[in-house]
């Protein structure tokens, strides 16, 4: 039986769609991987927003854990992987609850990602302006 192993996000390349007021110090992507639950990534207004993750090794992605700020969660998000032509194709779709507790989203089956980018694309935020705020982001693979 396979076990879940957390992938160290500081061993990946991260990109985000936007940062609130371009204030990377207080709201940038580094806050997703600093291990501090008091810091956050805060997007600009507008939908969709996304986080792109490029693992530095082949992984067998099976789940993602996210702690949104209540009121700034996505109503829906899609996990997508990049195709050879540069487009992104959906792997799985989820509907988070609008609260500030850690939520775990399990893929129906593990998805192998071999050092190519995949995205978490957030649609339809509970925030009127479409902002997304995330305090914790974890990804897990089968080992």
UniProtKB/TrEMBL annotation:
<dbReference type="Pfam" id="PF00754">
    <property type="entry name" value="F5_F8_type_C"/>
</dbReference>
<protein>
    <recommendedName>
        <fullName>F5/8 type C domain-containing protein</fullName>
    </recommendedName>
</protein>
<feature type="domain" description="F5/8 type C">
    <location>
        <begin position="17"/>
        <end position="108"/>
    </location>
</feature>
<dbReference type="InterPro" id="IPR008979">
    <property type="entry name" value="Galactose-bd-like_sf"/>
</dbReference>
<dbReference type="InterPro" id="IPR000421">
    <property type="entry name" value="FA58C"/>
</dbReference>
